[in-house]
Specification:
With about 220 residues, the protein is of the alpha/beta class. The chain has one domain: Ribonuclease H-like superfamily/Ribonuclease H (Nucleotidyltransferase, domain 5). About 45% of the residues lie in helices and about 15% in strands. A 6-stranded mixed beta sheet has the order 1-4-3-2-5-6, sandwiched between helices. Strand 5, helix 5 and strand 6 form a beta-alpha-beta unit. The longest helix is centred in the C-terminal third of the chain and has 26 residues.
């Protein structure tokens, strides 16, 4: 049985250290965001009470219902970016805990100004958050999900799946965690940081697989 790749990661403790980590990165990096609904349990309870008001306008009712049904995968207006993970090998990563506006700005500014090549898996999810907050996109990037989809290109749905865990699970094991872990209350939990780090490393390894496949006969 193949042993899962052991991922090593660091979490910067200060804004200065976070900037140092970012500036130390090489020219090819794999990136990933984690997100959580921005509303607290108390706010959600208040939204439920507000819905009981018969005098609410239709638009206000729709707005409250959208907040109550929001998930971590929802529109950026309902969501906080909680973690940014970046890998420069198949087993080494940094995990930035986005627990303040300052570190979030630092990361977003880095992503929209660096000339390093960024690898994302399903970039449309992450890029909608980047664009929502900055009005910009990264300068140089690749999307391993789009590349995988082009290579798989199978008419049977079950044979055309290109989720990161489906493609890389044999190398990193079953690293998925319950959606209950993606909350603001668990933003500093080590097991969430470990999950985020594996995500980025798995993207890096998938990129290497694709590159090796495309060049093996050249």
């Amino acid at each position: 049985m193949i042993q899962p790749i052991q991922v090593i990661y660091q979490v910067p403790k200060t804004l200065y250290e976070a900037n140092q980590f970012l500036q130390s990165l090489p020219n090819l990096i794999a990136c990933d965001f984690e997100t959580a609904v921005k509303y607290t349990p108390a706010q959600l309870e208040q939204f439920k009470k507000d819905l009981e008001n018969d005098n609410l306008s239709k638009l206000d009712r729709i707005a409250l219902q959208s907040k109550l049904s929001a998930t971590a995968l929802d529109h950026p207006s309902h969501v906080h970016l909680t973690h940014f993970s970046v890998a420069w090998s198949e087993s080494d990563a940094y995990v930035f805990v986005l627990d303040s506006p300052a570190i979030t700005r630092l990361v977003l500014n880095f992503l929209t100004t660096t000339t390093r090549t960024q690898i994302w898996h399903n970039a449309s999810f992450d890029f909608k958050h980047i664009f929502y907050h900055t009005g910009k996109f990264p300068l140089n990037y690749e999307d391993t999900q789009i590349r995988s989809k082009c290579l798989v290109n199978h008419v049977e749905i079950d044979k055309a799946k290109t989720g990161l865990k489906q493609l890389m699970g044999s190398y990193y094991g079953n690293w998925g965690i319950s959606s209950d872990n993606f909350t603001l209350a668990q933003i500093h939990e080590p097991h969430v940081h470990h999950y985020a780090a594996i995500d980025a490393c798995a993207v890096y390894k998938l990129h290497n697989h694709i590159e090796n496949y495309l060049t093996k006969d050249s």
